[in-house]
Amino acid sequence: MLKTLQTTGQVLRGARALSTSPVTISSGRGGRSSTNSHTVTVFGATGRMGRYLVNSLGQQGAQIILPHRCDVHTVQYLKLSSDLGQQHPVYTPDFNDEAHLEEVVKYSDVVVNLTGSHKPRLHHSFTDSNATLTHKIARACKNVGTPCFIHMSHINADYDSKSQYLRAKALSEEIVLHELPNSAIIIRAADCFHGWDEFTHYLARINTRKRLYQKGRTFIYKRGEATFKQPVFGPDVMKAITRIINTPDQDRLRLYQFIGPKVYSLNEFMQSITEMTYRMYKPIYNPIRHFVEADLWKHENYIRYQMISDTPTHGLPGLEDVGIKPAAFEDEAIAWLRNYRIFWQVWDPIDGQRSNIYNNSVGTGENF
Q1: Which listed residue, 159, 220, 250, 366, has the most CB atoms within 10 A of its CB?
Q2: How far apart are CA 205 and CA 174, in angstroms?
Q3: pLDDT digits (tens, 9 = 90+) for 61-107
Q4: pTM, whole model, 2 decimals?
Q5: Alpha-carbon gap, residue 278 to 340, rounded angstroms
């Protein structure tokens, strides 16, 4: 049965009563049906990457507190990641309520911040979603004395970036280090690829939405030869964060950089995508359209994914330093990029060949 935490002037419903100490006692042999020594609050657990972190923490037997603003039913799928009683969704409709935020984080010895939006919303700008909210969470952790605060940033975060998202991420890093100089850990990750990402799905869409008669002509900034990416597998990043949480505090570093095993030009990366989607690909570049996308519309995905190259910093600890072998894009992406194939553009069991949809009118493989 779920209990109610009674506090002075505040009632926190939807969470099991925990000890007033931020540290729990380990029990069991390890795994989902055990309890390790960590209580972790995860902000942003219902986002694109949150499910992987919750699953990884559940495998270790951590107590997980999940603040959320959405309907309770949208959090239910995360229950499968942990054993009964190990996970505590907490409805937090108003993140402006500092007392409520402090109530959510005061039982945890680790707080992970995955909040942030890749696009501005109706009532929230990039700064609101990526910096202001982070400031409120970090201040709540400072007030209750949270021992460890892990903040998810980006490898290209820069105040001078053309991307509003990356400028907001740079501001969020400064805020976290200002509020929690001794307990903050910054995770700078490259663009992540996984089943729910925006990166690979955006690049696949701009190619697959073309008409067949266009023969795969895809508008790419400078034909993909001026931009270089080093994408990383999202679940690997979340496993690495779990490893950091399980590392003794004296051995934790304050800045990590998680990048993939291979550097691609954007053109090479698009070729890897289209090899999995079975689509024709022919990069084209138009300076007029570039002006419209980058300067007139200020299209965030175009600027961030096509114009900005990854710039890793030499010498920072990465995935290998926490015991994670980074997965290759070609080994993982087929799981979701196959959804972009045309339904008849598959392996034919009769003649063992794929139909040529670009050189005929009906896609049967016959030339008319």
Answers
A1: 220
A2: 34
A3: 999 999 998 888 889 999 999 998 899 999 998 888 999 999 999 99
A4: 0.88
A5: 8
Q: Residue written as tokens 């400028």?
A: 167
Report how far residue 197's alpha carbon sits from residue 195's, in angstroms, rounded to the nearest whole number: 6
Distances (CA, A) of 186 to 199, 241, 255, 341: 22, 10, 5, 38
Give me the DSSP letters along 198-256. SHHHHHHHHHHTS-GGGTTEEE-GGGGSS-EE--EEHHHHHHHHHHHHHS-GGG--SEE
Return the structure tokens found at 2.
């779920």
Q: Enumerate the H helices of 247-328 as residue ranges.
A: 266-277, 287-290, 300-301
Between the alpha carbon of residue 296 and those of residues 28, 124, 283, 303, the distances in Å are: 59, 21, 22, 12
From residue 254, alpha-carbon distances to 184, 244, 251 in Å are: 7, 10, 10
The helices-and-strands tally (H runs, E runs) of the chain is: 12, 15
pLDDT tens figures, 300-316: 999 999 999 999 999 99
Task: Give 306's DSSP letter.
Answer: I
Q: Are 243 and 324 in contact (CB under 8 A)?
A: yes
